[in-house]
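Protocol step 4 of 6: structure prediction from sequence.
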Amino acid sequence: MRRLAASIRRRLGARRIPLPPGQAGDELRERVLGTAPRLERILFENILPFWYPRVLDLKHGGYHLNHGPDGTSLGPARKSLVGTARTLWFFSRMARAGHQRDAMLEAARHGYDFLVTSFLDDRHGGFYWHVSEDGAVPLDATKHQYGQAFAIFALAEYAMATGSEGPALVAEEACELVELHLRDPERGGYWDQLERTWGPGALEPTRTRGGAKYLGSMHHLMEAYTWQARARPGSIAAARLPELILVCANAVVRMREGALTDAHRPDWSPLLDEEHARVSYGHDIETIHLLIAACEAAGVTPHVLSGLYRALLQNALAHGHDRRKGGFHYMGPLGKRADRREKIWWVQAEALLGTLEMYRITGDRAPAETYLSTLGWVESRQVDWTHGEWHATVPPRGRPYGRKADAWKGPYHSGRAVIHSLEALAALRAPRDGDRSSA
């Protein structure tokens, strides 16, 4: 019997099965709290020096985001709404966190001015998807829900960083347009995109009114409404936030698998063909911390969704986690091991913040240990200590590759993960310190 028990323990240890829910001990808690200097080094020696002042477009305004693996500019490039808004958010968030406040506010103002003069559609409202490098010509005037969400998100943060109400009012107008044109009032949730005039036009049917609904768009709209609710507590975003919490915590969840499905029909039945029956481990863990933040902004305790957090993390650990090296693979089939095993920068960023926030809320061992192993991977392999920022992609074999900056890769994922992780550590530390001081 003893030999059998020892054999079982060896097999479980080799597989590194996540521990069941349970409070992490003091030793593990101290190890987590002790990571703050490591995060600060990544932020101030790796992330910030890459983006500032390199991406400020001093000739045309806004941000130049077109850099190769070594950080060298690859030349002129059109400007994207998502890239501009995310970079504006980063500099604003750095300022509000008290990091080089004057310089960060000026860098944020540089992006804000370009956003409201070049991306804002002064005829039909909302924001264009792409504009020319100088901002004079809208190259794609489509009104994407995803793009409107990031504009709202950035404007709300800029308003909080500057203490000015104007940017939040611009964001509120965008919220009203999203609610008027993109929300499904009958079944809930939001359509993905419309043409410039907010009509269906000739766009891909599955991505317009009456077509599919996408988690990837809606959980970022939830994030945007979370930020706008903080900037303007009486806003329409604050009123709509509870529905978005329900969407992201229930309508898109595959209960049996403990995973999220990205694409859905208007009635929320999931699209589970070969293309869509897949799990994005980064999106699943990202949704954990987005839900925690949304609940806190809506005045709902995030503890009520602890069961969902555990199910999402358990599935990601079972199928997408690199048990030997740390970090998470990109994606895989529903209920099966990952078949896209490259390590993408944003997946590691979301895993870092999502597991730490889950640990802050639940106190469980599994997210604490996963946070530590993910940070170890990020420090040793994802971070480019030579040229700055994080490698876009680290393959299972071979050298890292991918651009350091483009329409999709900016300072948002890595910057948000580290800034918010530092604040999560401060929140974790405060209650225990308070207990000691009152003893």
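Step 5 (inspection) to follow. Residues 1-20, 433-439 have pLDDT under 50 and may be disordered.
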